[in-house]
Automatic annotation (TrEMBL):
The lineage of its organism: Bacteria, Pseudomonadati, Bacteroidota, Flavobacteriia, Flavobacteriales. GO terms for cellular component: cytoplasm. It comes from the Bacteria. It holds the Pfam family Aminotran_1_2. Its cofactor is pyridoxal 5'-phosphate. Residues 25-373 form the Aminotransferase class I/classII large domain. GO terms for molecular function: kynurenine-oxoglutarate transaminase activity; pyridoxal phosphate binding. Keywords: Aminotransferase, Pyridoxal phosphate, Transferase. This is Methionine aminotransferase.
Length: 377
């Protein structure tokens, strides 16, 4: 059998989590919380399971959840959307991204992917015989607009953006959104796939979204994840918002990819959304970021700016010259802490020794990890 993806192995996140288990290491690699979800959410799940919600919900999502998400989009970002036609509940952000690319990108199109970037964008682009065009972010991990503008041409169908950014934790400011708006205005065929899974995990600014920019609405698809917002990554439930003409196309793919998403989880999330405030998430993770940063001051690592997400980038102490892949493999074995190297996030990794730590962990886990990291000089 000829492999369609001969170069592809398992993801760096699977690899590092597996190494963490193998070496009994503290796992600050793959991004998931190690603390329990809210008891209220557990209760809603149990109640939904006790009730009669065990059959297919409508293809686009459980009606009351769609209504609730429309209200959330309006209160958070001021965009009024039609819950029946402009929202789609997905099996995590990953499936939404896959469906959007399959539905909207044509063979031969180009799609701008900003490096470093999360790993789930390029494979769906290849699967529609389109071409990812990797454009480096600036050294500060924020968009380099002249470079992006230079890469967009008449073949460019889509640009994929992600803020708060995985892996860097940087957050766009309004001038970035305005630059995006200008770019979209200049290129009538260009769509924006906005990966907003960490939208509520911001530390210095309010949550931001493409939905705050009416001139972008017709051309944007946003992707959200309850896994990030409610600490339940294993549930794999997320949603997308897009104008009706775009969403109509995305639904055509979605109905044959999954048809509909886990009914019980959707019912539980609907009830939970009635009583929880997403506004608290930023404060919750700001405390984690600050605590981790304070602890890390006792180590030889240098921390880079982190304004959102639950990832902290660090520079490895300069004395070492090996690759970041070797560093993390050695660190997990010799020190017992798993981290994520940055090179897998790039098409052409620069020479760097940045590592990503996930701080969505209990204070005890963070303390124990840092105690081990102090051994690295
Ligand atoms: N986008 C980014 C930037 C991510 O970090 C992740 C990882 N969780 C996803 C998308 C996928 O989210 P989900 O688990 O909801 O599919
Ligand atoms: N988004 C998670 C991270 O960046 C990984 C999720 C996965 O393993 N697919 O760590």
């Amino acid at each position: 059998m000829v492999s369609k993806f001969p170069q592809m192995g398992s993801s760096i996140f699977s690899e590092m989590s597996q190494l963490a288990v193998q070496y009994n290491a503290i796992n600050l690699s793959q991004g998931f919380p190690d603390f329990p979800i809210d008891d209220r959410l557990k209760l809603h799940l149990a109640q939904a399971a006790e009730s009669h919600f065990h059959q297919y919900v409508p293809m686009a999502g459980y009606g009351p959840l769609l209504e609730r998400l429309a209200t959330l989009t309006e209160t958070q970002y001021g965009r009024l959307i039609n819950p029946q036609h402009e929202i789609l509940v997905t099996a995590g952000a990953t499936q939404g991204i896959f469906a959007a690319i399959q539905a909207l990108v044509h063979p031969g199109d180009e799609v701008i992917v900003l490096d470093p970037s999360y790993d789930c964008y390029t494979t769906p682009i290849h699967l529609v015989s389109a071409h990812p065009v990797r454009v480096p972010l600036g050294a500060d991990f924020l968009p380099d607009w002249p470079q992006i503008e230079g890469a967009v041409c008449s073949r460019t169908r889509m640009i994929i953006i992600n803020t708060p950014h995985n892996p860097s934790g940087r957050v766009w400011n309004s001038s970035d959104y305005l630059a995006l708006q200008k770019l979209v205005a200049q290129h009538p065929q260009l769509l924006v796939l906005s990966d907003e899974v960490y939208e509520y995990i911001t530390f210095a600014s309010r949550p931001q979204s493409v939905h705050q920019y009416p001139q972008l609405w017709e051309r944007c698809i946003s992707v959200s994840s309850f896994g990030k917002s409610f600490h339940c990554t294993g549930w794999k439930v997320g949603y997308m918002v897009a104008s009706e003409p775009l969403m109509r196309e995305i639904k055509k793919v979605h109905q044959f990819l999954v048809f509909s998403v886990n009914s019980v989880a959707q019912v539980a999330l609907t009830a939970y959304l009635e009583e929880v405030s997403v506004a608290l998430l930023g404060d919750f993770y700001r405390q984690k970021r600050d605590y981790f940063a304070r602890l890390m001051q006792t180590t030889a690592f240098t921390l880079l700016p982190c304004e959102g997400s639950y990832f902290q980038l660090v520079s490895w102490p300069t004395a070492h010259v090996e690759s970041d892949m070797k560093l993390v493999r050695r660190m997990v074995q010799e020190v017992g802490v798993a981290a994520i190297p940055l090179s897998p996030f790039y098409e052409h990794p620069p020479q760097n020794q940045h590592l990503r730590f996930c701080f969505a962990k209990s204070d005890t886990t963070l303390e124990q990890a840092v105690e081990r990291l102090q051994k690295i000089k």
